[in-house]
Amino acid sequence: MKPGAKMALLALAIVFPALASNEYQVYVMASAFVWAIAVYGLNIITGYCGQLNLAHGGFFAIGAYTLGLLTSDAGWSFWPAFVAALLVTAVLGFLVGVVSLRLKEHYFAIFTLCVGFIIYLLMDKWEELTHGPVGVRDIAAPYGFGVVDFTETTPFYYLVLAFLVFSIWFMGRLSRSLLGRTFIAIRNGDELAQSLGINLMRNKVLAFVLSTTYAGLAGALYAGMVRFIGPEEANIIHTFDMITYLLVGGIGTLTGPLLGTISIVWITQSLQFLEEYRMILFGPLLVVLVIFFPRGITGQFLTWMHHKAQTLSPAKKEKASKVQTATSGEVKNNA
User: Fold this and answer.
1) What is the distance between the alpha carbons of residues 327 and 243, in angstroms, rounded to a whole number?
2) pLDDT grade, residue 43 (50/70/90)?
3) Which pairs with CB-CB distance under 8 Å and at least 24 residues apart come from 102-110?
4) Which neighbouring-strand residues pair with 136?
5) Alpha-carbon span 170 to 175, nearest angstrom
6) Are 324 and 253 within one domain?
7) Nearest C-alpha neighbor of 205 from the set 49, 23, 315
8) Which of 143, 147, 170 is nearest to 159 (CA)?
9) Per DSSP, what are the bridge partners of residue 148?
10) Alpha-carbon distance 48 to 251, whole Å?
11) Residue 333's pLDDT band (boundaries 50, 70, 90)?
């Protein structure tokens, strides 16, 4: 995406609260931004590294529960608990990654699916720590500064937007770095990457840790936004929702997670008036998107741009050839 387009999107995001017709729309967009951060984390391990992690929603819940329990039960303020949530998800991501990434392809996916279900069971049954089905209440909101109060919807929206911009910036730097290209090489084939001297285990674990840290960041922001969490935050359905956002937007692309998440979140919100029947319309709509945009919105756009460049390149070559011929003719005449 060109810098001008990026600045236009950022400007639109900044003025969105002024354009929204009510505060609820600002809240929905802030929620979409939170989920987009988590989807960017999934894009690291799945889109760039090629490992399907089905426990991603569980790590999202770990970040939310870490912040919730530290602020509600231990009396911590938001920001120290926020940092602790990132550290906890990173450490647990390292431990799970070291074990699970010894497996390949669908075996890895099945193992992480089991890990995600175990996380859900622990949050639902370990009442002494997680409060069980009752959940965690009275979670602290981030404290602001001066006249800025993050307990209000609009200031919190800008806080989440700042974290989203940083997440996208970091993802862009990562994708263009040697490490990002190493992840892509692993995605394209373990044997090929290993023949190039790439340490598969170390790089896969690093990708997994970065991915879970993104999930923990999103989970902590989510807990500070809703101020109440329960075991359903670790439900496997959230992982499949994030996979859907990623596929619709464009897996392995920079803007795909953002476009996919915002699109699906607003589509589901637009169908709220249908209540339980909205999924009857949403399902076929999703199928149509997958059929006509198999590489996602961003992936399809990039493919179109590539074909357009290939179509125009012969014409440009012919034009350049004519210019070169005319120039050489002028040189001969002058000689």
Assistant:
1) 55
2) very high
3) 102/201, 104/190, 108/51, 108/52, 108/53, 109/52, 109/53, 109/54, 110/54
4) 229
5) 9
6) no
7) 49
8) 143
9) 145
10) 8
11) very low
Q: Taking Cα atoms as reference points, which of 170, 212, 256 lies closest to residue 58? A: 212
Domain that holds residue 326: 306-335
- Amino acid letter for position 50: G
Q: Give me 90's structure tokens.
A: 């990173």
Q: What is the pLDDT of residues 174-220, one digit of tens each?
A: 999 999 999 999 998 888 888 888 899 999 999 999 999 999 999 99
* Phi, psi dihedrals of residue 128, rounded to the nearest 5°: -60, -30
**Spatial distance between the Cα atoms of 266 and 20, rounded to a whole number of angstroms:** 13
**Same structural domain for residues 150 and 250?**
yes
Q: Do 206 and 334 fall into the same domain?
A: no
- Whether the CB-CB separation of 90 and 213 falls below 8 Å is answered with yes
In a domain, 51, yes or no: yes
Predicted structure pTM score: 0.86
In the chain, the amino acid numbered 20 is A
220 domain-assigned: yes
Q: 247 and 320: one domain?
A: no
The structure tokens 């770990």 sit at 62
301 occurs within a structural domain: no
Residue type, 179: L
For residues 274 and 132, membership in a common domain is answered with: yes
Residues 186 and 199: their CA atoms lie apart, in Å, by 10
299 is a domain residue: no
